[in-house]
């Protein structure tokens, strides 16, 4: 299984490119598409799912050009878009039955598959409740269930954890990682912990361009020796933010403990700490911003 993007660009207006010159190759496993708001993640997802056509370049699924032959990807695709609307008066089971029918599954196959998916997404207890009564997290889990109805080879999930509380976010992450074997999963997010534990590779997008595509370990390694923690007076926090990329703050009795990304030790008492993927992400974004 292989998804390849070659020189993919999307122009919205004369000088407005949603993405530009993106080359990317993804194999089986979870891949994170990371970038700040407006970076072009949704644009790229819409091209991959054939909802929208690129202005330049093309996408290939197992070597077949998906702009010329959209069915090559549509037939194997599961998609959870950012704005995922459901039918509030259907129960979870009814909704999944409807999706299964649209996907052309016969009744028997559909029933078995729906049972399996409700259990995978931890919604067995709620299967006969109307979707209007679902919490944000349950809504997203039904979303992932509907995307998996046809057992897709390519699963595309766009910002799935926005608005979820931390516990639901973790639950969603676990569901997703348990579905990742035997398919290509592309998960777009601007929340680094969403992919930290699960992604095989991370593609970092900023202002429509692919900044890097690497495994999380290599990204973190590149930031090694550049992350420091120290306690700053509370009144200095704004100044620290102006000077450094701050990846965390903790209020303390004697000031604010800050975690910063810096090429050199910012103050003599700063302690070097082990970087996380979040630090590495901010470092790449920062370096680009400063370049
Ligand atoms: N239909 C459109 N017409 C014009 N510009 C657009 C259109 N859709 C997106 N853009 C612009 O393209 C850029 C990329 O947008 P996109 O929605 O792909 O980013 P994103 O990374 O998904 O951000 P978000 O997380 O905020 O959705 C932005 O500058 C956006 O304003």
From TrEMBL:
Pfam families found in the cross-reference section: ABC_tran
Keywords: ATP-binding, Nucleotide-binding, Transport
SUPFAM superfamilies found in the cross-reference section: P-loop containing nucleoside triphosphate hydrolases (SSF52540)
InterPro entries noted in UniProt: AAA+_ATPase, ABC_transporter-like_ATP-bd, P-loop_NTPase
PROSITE patterns noted in UniProt: ABC_TRANSPORTER_2 (PS50893)
Family under the similarity heading: Belongs to the ABC transporter superfamily.
Name listed for the protein in its UniProt record: ABC transporter ATP-binding protein
């Amino acid at each position: 299984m292989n998804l390849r993007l070659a020189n993919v660009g999307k122009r919205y207006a004369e000088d407005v490119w949603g993405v530009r010159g993106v080359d990317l190759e993804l194999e089986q496993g979870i891949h994170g598409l990371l970038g700040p708001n407006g970076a072009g993640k949704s644009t790229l997802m819409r091209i991959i799912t054939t909802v929208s056509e690129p202005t330049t370049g093309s996408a290939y699924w197992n070597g077949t050009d998906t702009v010329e032959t959209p069915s090559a990807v549509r037939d194997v695709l599961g998609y959870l878009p950012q704005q995922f609307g459901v039918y509030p008066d259907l129960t979870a089971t009814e909704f999944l039955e409807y999706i299964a029918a649209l996907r052309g599954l016969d009744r028997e196959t559909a029933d078995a598959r729906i049972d399996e998916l409700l259990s995978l997404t931890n919604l067995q207890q709620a299967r006969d409740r109307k979707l209007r009564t679902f919490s944000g997290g349950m809504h997203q889990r039904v979303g992932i269930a509907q995307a998996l109805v046809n057992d897709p080879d390519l699963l595309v999930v766009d910002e799935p954890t926005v608005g979820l509380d931390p516990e639901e976010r973790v639950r969603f992450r676990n569901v997703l990682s348990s579905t990742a074997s035997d398919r290509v999963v592309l998960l777009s997010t601007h929340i680094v912990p969403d992919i930290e534990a699960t992604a095989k590779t991370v593609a970092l997008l900023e202002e429509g361009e692919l900044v890097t595509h690497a495994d999380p370990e290599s990204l973190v390694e590149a930031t090694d020796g550049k992350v420091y923690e120290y306690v700053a007076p509370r009144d200095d926090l704004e100044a620290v933010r102006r000077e450094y990329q701050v990846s965390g703050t903790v209020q303390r009795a004697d000031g604010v403990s800050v975690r910063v990304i810096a090429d050199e030790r910012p103050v003599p008492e700063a302690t070097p700490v082990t970087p996380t993927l979040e630090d590495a992400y901010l470092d790449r974004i920062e370096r680009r911003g400063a370049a």
